[in-house]
Structure formats: C-alpha cells, structure tokens
Specification:
Helices cover 33% and strands 22% of the residues. The chain has 353 residues and is an alpha/beta fold. The strands form 6 sheets. Strands 13-10-14-15-16 form a 5-stranded parallel sheet, sandwiched between helices. Strands 2-8-7-5 form a 4-stranded mixed sheet, with no helix packed on it. The longest helix is centred in the C-terminal third of the chain and has 19 residues. It is elongated.
C-alpha cells in the first residue's frame, strides 16, 4: 500500500486490533512522507585521516666556523634545526651533536627529523675549525740605508726641448723622488709583513746624491752613532766607478770599512751589488767594470759575515724597464724591485721562525 493511501485511509474500528496496531506503527514510520513533517540537513562527511606517508621538512643552520688557538679540537654549539610538518611528535637529532668537540678542518654535521609515523627528513651543514695564521716577526727593526743617489731615490725624467744647449740635446733630467726610493718602498714591505711590529719598524734613508763611496765611509760613523741602527744596508760605488778602473779598489775598501764598523757595533750588515748599466745610456758605467766591482763585494761580504744582496742578477733580466734612460739610475719600477730584493734577503735572514 502506498504511503499516501495510508495517510488518507480511515481505519475502521471494526478492524481486528492487531491490524489496527500495525497500521498505526507503519503510519508513524512513514510520517516523514506526509506534508506535516520538516526535512533535516544532510550530515557532512567525516574529515580524512592523516596520510601516513606525509613527512616533516627540516632546515639546518648556516655553515659555522671556529678557531682553535692550540690546534686541538674545540667545542662548537649550534641551534637545533627547524622542523615543520609531519605526524607529531617529531624529534630532531644531529651527529655530531651541538656542543661536541670538532677537530681542525671541515666536519659535516648531518641532522634528521623523525615523525611519529616513521617518516623522516634530513639536512646537513659544515663546521670549519681553523688555526690562526702564525704571526710573522722579525728579529731587528731599525734599519739604516746608506749610499749615494741610488739610495736617496734619484730618477731620470725626459728633458724639455728648452733645456738643451745649442748643439746639444740632453735626453733627461735628474729628479730626487724620496717616495720612490728603495728605502721608502722597503719600509712599506716590512710594515705590511710584520704588522704587529709596525710601530717599531723604521728604515732611515741616509742616501746622499753625488757622493763618492770613499767620502761616504767618512760620513758613516757619525750617522751610525746618531741613529744606532740594528741593520745597515750598503749600496754605493757608482760615482767612484765613473772615474775609471783606478777607483775600483778604493771603492771596495770603503764598503769594507763601513761593513766592519757596523759589524763591530753589533749591526747586521747587508751589502748590495751595483745594478746593471742600461746599454746606450749617457751615464751608463762600463759593464765589465761593474761586474769586477761586484765580484770584489762578494769577497767583502764573505769576510765581514755580511749578507750579499745581488741587485745585479735581480735587475739584469728587465734592465730596459728598471734602469732609466741615463743608463745608471733606476726607474720608479726599478726602485720597487730593489726594495723587493732587499726585502727577500732580510726576510730570509732576520725573520723569526
């Protein structure tokens, strides 16, 4: 029987009791089909259960650095990597752990995040432990650079046309440039390498233009007494050799006299050979005379226990650029190179190891 028929059919009192009761029960069950009932909203579906396969993400800290003053392993602490997502609880661990001792060198720290459902994530960063660079020191810091114009810092510059005399065309002029001199350049090199001793490092330029080395040997004792240097750098003899071969022996003896004076007064002595002459220069010395003089200086250095600084060999390969157009005086680049050669000899002899 349709529900509408039940809603509209009259139940006869003469019907058997059991039929009447069944009809009443059935009518109650179908009340929703009658116009007198109010329909209800549908029940929303349940939220999905967490996906067991989803895992956490892990972000490590940036690479770290540390210093070991003794060279031994040092403890290093770092922040715990950041974990997001994953089924709680999520635990994070690192190996080596924060606070562990790390040896000198680079060590990779690997970290892992583990979620409750077994899913994991990992990341890594580096801990670099270094030792401080050894502090360079030098055993002596007060220097006296003694010599002629090659020490003072005289350079050649092109001469203007108006400077030429009638019928004569000089190609250069001489200019004193103390800032370009090798003692000034050497002072900068020493201060740069031995920074912690910079306040006590001093290179005094006692070069005198036009001076013969035989006259310089007479000036030397007073200069030494006034400055009391710990190191003496000798470079001289060019003006003497310009007089000819007869001046060779007196010039050598003058260098020897100054070296002995300095040695007896407890100074360390460095004797420099003369730079090579530039061929074609108007003031270029005889190459054979320069080499003979330098050969004698080797003997002087050996006899006085001095350090020989071989400028001739160091400058010869680039003579056209390190010696000026007069053939005698270094260019500014030449003075820098002379300072570098002196510096190398000083470093090898006086640097504390």
């Amino acid at each position: 029987m349709a529900a509408a028929d039940i809603c509209s059919k009259k139940i006869s009192p003469a019907s058997p009791g059991i039929v009447c009761i069944a009809a009443i029960i059935l009518a109650a069950a179908l009340t929703g089909a009658c116009g007198s009932s109010t329909p209800t909203s549908p029940t929303p579906p349940p939220s999905p259960a967490p996906n067991p396969s989803s895992g956490p993400t892990l972000t490590c800290p940036a690479d770290l650095s540390a210093t070991s003053t003794s060279g031994a392993a040092v403890p290093v602490s770092f922040a715990t990597p950041t974990s997001t997502g994953g089924v709680a609880p999520v635990t994070v661990s690192c190996a080596p752990a924060s606070g562990s001792s790390f040896p000198v060198g680079s060590t990779t720290v690997r970290c892992t995040a583990s979620a409750a459902n077994g899913a994991t994530a990992s990341c890594a960063f580096t801990v670099a432990v270094s030792t401080p660079q050894p502090t360079q020191r030098i055993s002596r810091t007060r220097f006296l650079a003694f010599g002629d114009s090659l020490t003072a810092g005289e350079v050649t510059v092109p001469a203007p046309t108006s400077a030429a005399s009638e019928g004569e065309a000089p190609s250069f002029l001489l200019a004193l440039v103390p800032q370009a001199s090798y003692p000034m350049q050497l002072d900068l090199l020493l201060r740069a390498r031995y920074g912690q001793q910079s306040a006590s490092i001093n290179v005094t330029n006692a070069g005198k233009t036009g001076e013969y080395v035989t006259d310089g040997s007479k000036r030397f004792p007073d200069v030494f007494s006034a400055l009391r240097p710990e190191v003496v750098l000798l470079l001289g003899g060019s003006n003497d050799l310009a007089l000819g071969s007869g001046a060779l022996t007196p010039a050598v003896l003058a260098i020897e006299t100054m070296a002995k004076e300095a040695r007896l007064r407890n100074a360390r002595v460095f004797i420099a050979t003369l730079p090579p002459p530039r061929p074609g220069g108007l003031r270029a010395l005889s190459s054979s005379l320069v080499q003979a003089y330098n050969s004698r200086l080797v003997d002087v250095a050996r006899g006085e226990g001095a350090v020989l600084v071989d400028l001739y060999a160091g400058l010869l390969p680039s003579v056209a650029t390190v010696i000026g157009i007069d053939g005698l005086h270094p260019t500014e680049a030449g003075y820098r190179r002379i300072a570098e050669i002196f510096f190398d000899s000083i470093r090898q002899d006086l640097e504390v190891r």
